[in-house]
Amino acid sequence: MTPDSIVDSIANQADDLLADARSVAEARTGIAEILSAEYPKLSGPERQKIIEAVLRILSEEGFFESGRGMAGGGDSEESADEE
Predict the structure, then answer these.
(1) Which residues neighbour 50 within 8 Å (Cβ) at sequence distance 6 or greater?
(2) What's the total number of domains in the chain?
């Protein structure tokens, strides 16, 4: 598999693969674990590029803004200011 196809595969399955991720940091860790388990021959720089590309796609798609997995997290200061 090429790095681009790995990025596409992980991004397309993010709802299932990263279901427990509550933040970008947790998603980063989850993606790194997936890469280690499924693509152990990738170099460190290749892994980093793939992780960043997946996170960029997920951010563009609003994966971290949808409120899913944000219970107890998120930006509480903003909502406190609005009250």
Answers:
(1) 3, 6, 7, 10, 31, 35, 42
(2) 1
